[in-house]
Amino acid sequence: MTGYAKGQELTEMAKEKYAREFILQGERGEIVDRNEQLIATDTLSYRLVAVVKPDPSTERSGINYHVVDAKKTASVLAQFIDMPEQKIYDIIQKGIDEVAAGKSRYQVEFGKAGREIGIEEAEELAQAVEDEELTGVSLIEEKKRFYPNGIFASHLIGYATKELNEEDKKYETTGKMGIEKVYNDVLRGQPGSINYQSDRWGFVLAGTNRIVEPAKKGAQIKLTLDNTLQNFTEDAMNEMMMQYKPKKALAVIANAKTGEILAMSQRPTFDPETREGLTDSWLNEAIENTIEPGSTMKMFTLAAAIEEGKWRPNDYFKSGSYKVYDKTINDVNKHGWGTISFLEGFQRSSNVSMAYLLERIGDRRFIEYLEDFGFGKPVGISLPNEAPGIILDRYPAERVTTAYGQGSTVTPLQMIQAATAIANDGKMMQPYIIDTITDPNTGEVVTKNEPHQVGTPISAETAKEVRDVLASTVTAPHGTGQSYALPTYDVGGKTGTAEIPHPDRPGYMSGGSNYLFSFLGMAPIDDPELIMFVSVQQPITKPGEYGSVPVAKVFTNVMESALKSLNVAPNEVAPIEVKANENYVGKSSDTAVQQLRESGFTPIVIGEGGEVTEQYPSEGTELPPNTFVLLKTAGDSTLPNFDGWSKKMILSYKALSNLDIRIAGEGYVTEQNLGEGTRVTKDDPVVIQLKRPEQKYETPPQEEIEEEQELQEDE
After folding, report:
1. How far is CA 676 from each of CA 672, 679, 680, 685, rounded to the nearest angstrom?
2. Where is the PASTA domain (predicted)?
């Protein structure tokens, strides 16, 4: 024997014939919020297949692994997948006929209806297959994208779904919108494989090795979004939409000092899991769409006037109308309020006051200020299709209308960026949404974004004066921002009522609520922590109710809850004397407990006691009296009373204890399934129920921990 057949070495032919390769699916990376709470992740699902090709080796033994009764199989499967029985039968029968005709066919599938089957449905289907003694029906385990929060910054996050890769004819999860699409190559996992030599039945041959190439998980993207603040925003937007049914609505919250986007929500929206509610508009309205800002722009006209030394609040002007060449500028009520001060004019949102201010500033100098504030160009957030907006500057009348927010266009994100200069003592911060991108296979942080100052359009003194005037629009008896006041925090901001371009002809819509109502506000106004932009387009209001009412409801509900959640001290809370935390690691828990109590703190021991191995907060953190200090020791833990603890404190306890703590809700702890004093191990699930902060502000002890810890982290 030569060992060759038709010029090919027989041993190589045998190797090729019995070489087996299994593809290991690479898991798609997670998207998480700033506290690593899941926003998008892969979860287990199943794909339905029906084997149509008989295996002679098993048929001889009387065992069938292919479909024998196509009609009965179709009847059973139709009860579990969204496909008519006749169509299921046709697919199976066509496969059987192709095998009989000698075509290369092993199994058939059922398109979208047979993919992404959940665990419970798969278990029920498998039981039915067993009960009916069907053959040839298989459920193949795979991954699908899961969005645990439902509607949650949906136009920002986007969605991913299974798609057929035309190159290898395999299904893979692909981002179709938002961050899922933009960062698809970063998120997608890398497939692995198992290669081995087998016998004719597929078993590994003795004396041969399996070569395993592990699959690699896609990168984790950590956003700057805050899960709690985002949920506050989504809830407030849902409530407002049900009551006022506007055409559109938008809300964005940013950290005033860093530019981090903490929440972003728009309506209409959709559920990324089911795509229910997804319309033809896939635009992220905060970034990809422009609006005429209306009177919110007056905030920056005021800033320019103060910086130029042209703002004299107690000077007077005649309100009502202003003529610029052949164009007449009117106040909102046409006739004005007579002769009033410039301060009152701003508080009443007088267009005419802005025209007179523009005379003092100089209209071309004013345009330079708008450019310094970042208008007319993208802010440079790490997302595509950002609109630059247009600052109209060809004619004097355009510069006048721009001074009070008509004609020129901006994005809400530009408004947020510009407002950081006012909130942050003149330092303008670039908005950003991506915190880190981490390779989970190595733990390497491949991208880390930091706060980035992009300009200083005004001085700290100007910023402070602008904030004082903005606060007066909320507190003055004739201020347009009265409905935006909060019971426990001082707010400053500017209202806006912008005309909407007519969809069918030149000019603007008019009458009723055919406006874009908005508010750009910040709080606490003395030293702002948060900036929030809210807009509502064409709401259906009650007779006598202003269109700004739904805007105010979103702003006040969210801003109040957000500031409390972030442990920002309210107006009535007096300064608290603080003391630096000591280092207790290495000491006995008894000694540490005694010292903490002597210092006025409340110790919480995790474990059975003994040597302290970790603590929270860390050494040097300045803490007020009664603050909880967590001490980790070895052994099983005895649960404390979690009542009143914040979510962040629960997460800290969970991290130190490694217990199976499951959190439901937002805000502060109201219930726990296992009571105080219960001895638990890692195998005992501890369910914690949280609810939102109450209207009356009370400072739970754990809040001070988090406030001081966050201050230390900022430093």
Report:
1. 9, 9, 11, 14
2. 579-635
